[in-house]
Specification:
The complex is a heterodimer of chains A (about 120) and B (about 325). With about 120 residues, chain A is mostly helical. Chain A is about 75% helix and about 5% strand. In chain A, strand 1 and strand 2 form a beta hairpin. Chain B contains 9 helices and 5 strands, in the order ααααββαββαβααα. Classes of the chains: A mainly alpha (about 120), B alpha+beta (about 325).
Chain lengths: ~120, ~325
Amino acid sequence: MAHDTAHHESNIGRIWKVFILLSVVTIVEVILGIIKPAFLIETTLISMKLLNWIFIILTIYKAYYITWAFMHMEGETKGLRRSVVWTGIFLICYLIFILLTEGDYVYEVFKSGYVAWDF
Amino acid sequence: METAVTKTGTEDKTWGGGNQPLKVSYGKMMMWFFILSDALTFSGFLASYGFSRFKFIDSWPIADEVFNHFPFLHGVDAPMYYVALMTFILIFSSVTMVLAVDAGHHMKQKKVIFYMFLTIIGGAIFVGSQAWEWKNFIKGEYGAVETKGGQILQFVDGEGHRVGLKDIAIINTHKDRAQHERKNGIWFKKEGTLPTYTIEEIRAGFAKRKDLLIRTQTLTEKGQKTILSRTESLKRMQADAIGIVEGANLTHNEYGTPLFANFFFFITGFHGFHVFSGVIINIIIFINVILGTYERRKNYEMVEKVGLYWHFVDLVWVFVFTFFYLV
């Protein structure tokens, strides 16, 4: 493992760049969360507010930079990268799809009013 | 490390061992797979949070109204500023961690010590902030009334500003409700902490103050809480209200459905536990760096492995921040 020390050139510049990027994205999220622009709330896309989609996309964007730059996934072999990232993404998407569909179904059942719950 | 390996005589065969198809050490690879499994655990929590939220999509508490405290700013409505600050602290400690790893690659012991120290401080501040957030959440601010069906009714004045129980209650000084203690009964059972006011005191105060209205859990089209008319409010107070709630625990929650509190405690608690254990592991590695263990070993890969864990904690927080506070 002596090779580790040999070919690592310093990438301090890149680290700070990524930090600035993550900070800017977080600030944008917080500002959007506080002012909540009306048109982003009123527009819905695939049964979710546009604002929430923006939050989720920005979060995934941040997650990408943390994993790729800070955890140095970009420097790992294709095999390691795929076995970690693809496995995770596939299982998480599956889980989210199943649970949210079910949650929405339960909501419809509640709403149809056969059971009183607001008393 | 290589000196301890025994030869098997099958080194030249593909499956004879000794080759690294992923070109990382065993420890680092296993740290990656641990992170993968931990990521799935957190996804399970967040997805079940999503499930409950979709189930109560039109009555979920509004995070901006729940988490609006900032240290030294009492009574100021500061939605999300504090949690944004916490996010910065954690991202910054991630940066110092990756700087420590970078310094480790160049065998600069002094720099590794300095950056790891900053990382540990950042982590400790984050855990402390989390504790403060919990304290505010558990203590509650305004208090609310609970109905027979477990619904939460909050109070607002004519302009829609929240009104606390302490400004409503007309305290009946003639009746003093004694707390039942272990020593008094037959079965050595005691009751839980008594609430500050009784429901009758709140009911009397509510009837007297004509400007007060009730705010229910149900969300309107615009995503705000529904405010009932005065007559409806009085009716609900008379017919449905059975008890008062101050703050939040696992069964009662003045902000809305108890599920919100359960998920808050569970997800941020589990994440906070990760941060805490990350700080402990960082301290262990930090001591090793000071002692010169990795200097003698001639590589700082342990710093890299603990760094991976630390970044993962940051990664999870990015998602918790989005789904708990923003969405």
